[in-house]
Amino acid sequence: MAVELSKLMEKVTHMDITMIAGEQGLSNMVSWVHMIETKEASTFLEGGEIAFTTGIGLNNSLSILDLVENIWKNNAAGVVLNIGPFLESIPQEVIAFGNSHDFPVFTVPWKTHIAEIMRIFSYMITKSEQANLEIAAAFKNALFFPKQEELYVVPLSQHGFNLNWNYYSCAIRITQSLRHSISQKRLEAVCLDIDNHLQHRKYKKFAIFYNENQLIAITGNYTEENMTCFTHDIHEYLSRYLQKNERFYISIGKSTKSIRCLYKSYHQALSIQNFLQNQKNSSDLLSYSDMGIYKLLLGIEDKDILEEYYEKTIQPLITYDLKNDSDLSKVLWCYLKHNGSVKDTADELFVHRNTVNYKLNRVAEILNINLSSLDTRLQLTLGFMLQDML
Known about the structure:
Blueprint: E1 3-4, H1 5-10, E2 18-21, E3 29-30, E4 32-35, H2 39-42, E5 49-53, H3 64-73, E6 78-83, H4 92-100, E7 105-109, H5 114-144, H6 153-158, E8 167-175, H7 184-200, E9 206-211, E10 214-220, H8 224-241, E11 247-252, H9 262-278, E12 285-287, H10 294-298, H11 303-313, H12 315-324, H13 328-337, H14 342-349, H15 353-367, H16 374-389
Parallel strand pairs: 4-5, 5-6, 6-7, 11-12
Antiparallel strand pairs: 1-3, 2-7, 8-10, 8-11, 9-10
Helix pairs in contact: 11-16, 13-14, 13-15, 14-15
């Protein structure tokens, strides 16, 4: 993963490297290093690199300002200019450009070996990426193999995650049109960008990684207020970052008492995510603390019990509607939401009361129930709630 530019520079202060412009960009995240000597070579940048140049490719058609501008246009994190036989001095317009665009520009004398600076930067970035991979692997083990504590307790402790902290699990699903998951390559890119954004926002003790078709974010030792800020930052970023045909759902499980319970928070987040996707509204962010009565259903860990209950309540009606292209389940749910009021149901659906009564009688026949019973209506309501979660 990327490393903040200021942290990289702290490791090479002894190498006579000087910042001459763009100080406001020191918080940029650096993903790798790259030698750029020509305008054409700048197009190879993928974004986030720190570029190095000796000026050997400069000529009458390419000035140092042109090269710096092209490096900036290709989303580099900054540039290091090697002062020497090919680049004797830095024009004032380069300094002005760096300051006006918050684009860090550094100089280093010819006697200093830029290869050594690149080696140090590469090592730090690689080490950071290795640490993130180890943390992600340990958290995956905590989620999917919670009883095998040797797979995650020690590795996480070595990286500063305390065993007895509270933890939150956050599931992020990104879909395209027709609710298809985005490609694996796209998911990896989004994961990297969110991670860089959160690090830029100075969040500590978190990990974000991908698993199959979704992203998972884990936070350690966060208050509920901290977690709210964390998830709202992700929400705000994705709202700006994603393409028009992409939609996302963010769900947050309950805070745990220790790392050993993290898998419970994760499964809660998955259930809440299903709820978000099944709900017919615009909500795309939901936390366990906001689930109301649904918390009772989330607390049932045996999913077979939930599925059996759903199958014995409203599933036969759902199946009937699919086979006969009818809307009996829609009428029933509206009737239940209006506390058994036929009038209010008819008003919402813009139909006659007799139509509602007819369809409710068909519901009673198909399900072999008595809709005048409060207990029956409660059972059916729970069935619809389970439909939103399964």
